[in-house]
Amino acid sequence: MANLREIRSRINGVRSTSKITQAMKMVAAAKLRRAQDAIISARPYAYNLQDLITHLLSRVDRSTLPVMMQRDEVNSVLLIVVTADRGLCGAFNTNIIRHAMQRIHKTYGDLHRQGNVKLLCIGRRGYTHFRKRDYDVMEHHVGLVNTATYLDAANIMSGALERFLSGEFDRVEVVYNEFKSVIQQRIRDEQLLPLPEEEPEEAESKYHEFVDYIYEPSEVELMEQLIPKHLNFQLFRTLLESNAAEQGARMTAMDSATSNAKDLIRDLQLEYNSARQDSITTEILEIVSGANALKQED
């Protein structure tokens, strides 16, 4: 059994760690409230914009819109991977990295072996992981997710759109954690380019298919203006989702760590009490034995 000094040192160390995890939980909770408000405010605009574009697509010739053109063969792919900059958030980063690797090797295995799958990493954890393993990281952004603005998302998306339109990539996808609740995140992989034709599940169309709407300017001109805004805002929403999911995962992880630390302190305290009791019992036995020895000498 460990001596009293070692057990007392362990108790103090675990207690200090518990204070740190408790503070990190409180910080994550404060950040989560702001991140949750931001994503809840952004979702209606994103879904309504997507709904409008879906409605307009039924009224225009898709061949006039380059972002809608499905390539006959997918020969090159740009995968945008959104992770956190820091750890201590449970399996948040591990799950998204594992999902991205499965996407690369199972869905685009042949293209990956040919060197035609490029990565755009947003977040330090994903960038560090893929760079160390010699994946083709074309571009990376660190320190962006927690403070992302629409302009940041627009700058990243404009570069991806330009490369798609030039033919450098035949498909652009994003992999990220979607915020569902404080204790639940859902990994999503979505195709950004070419623009998917199907209507999103989350949005219910406000446009009746038999109503002849009149648009000024024309539908094609509206699409040319709306599609870049739509792509920029979808990536911005993705960053907001990831930030809220990260804070929720960190708060849950730190709460679990704090609870585990308290359980460990309780176990160590029992071990300390038991060791102290054994020590006292041994000392009493030694005193009694000494006293008896003195009596026998007398």
Question: What is this structure, in a nutshell?
Answer:
This protein has 298 residues and is of the alpha/beta class.
Overall description:
It is a single chain. This protein has 298 residues and is an alpha/beta fold. It has two domains: 4-20 and 255-297, Helix Hairpins (Orthogonal Bundle); 27-251, Pyruvate Kinase, Chain: A, domain 1. Helices cover 60% and strands 13% of the residues. It has six helices and five strands, in the order αβααβαβαββα. It has helices at residues 4-57, 92-107, 109-113, 124-132, 150-165, 219-297, and strands spanning 77-82, 117-122, 137-141, 171-181, 184-193. The protein has a five-stranded mixed sheet with strand order 3-2-1-4-5, sandwiched between helices. α5 packs across α6. The longest helix has 79 residues, at 219-297. The protein is elongated. Mean pLDDT is 89; it is low at 199-203.
Fold blueprint:
Layout: H1 4-57, E1 77-82, H2 92-107, H3 109-113, E2 117-122, H4 124-132, E3 137-141, H5 150-165, E4 171-181, E5 184-193, H6 219-297
Parallel strand pairs: 1-2, 1-4, 2-3
Antiparallel strand pairs: 4-5
Helix pairs in contact: 1-6, 5-6
The count of strands amounts to 5
> What proportion of the residues form beta strands (DSSP E)?
5-15%
H/E series = HEHHEHEHEEH
| CATH architecture designation of the largest domain | 3-Layer(aba) Sandwich
Provide the spatial order of strands within the biggest beta sheet. 3-2-1-4-5
Helix content: 55-70%
Largest sheet composition = 5 strands, mixed
Helix and strand composition category: alpha/beta
- Using only C-alpha atoms, the radius of gyration works out to 29 Å
**Termini separation:** 38 Å
Number of domains: 2
- Mean pLDDT across every amino acid position: 89
CATH topology group of the largest domain: Pyruvate Kinase, Chain: A, domain 1
> What's the CATH C level of the largest domain?
Alpha Beta
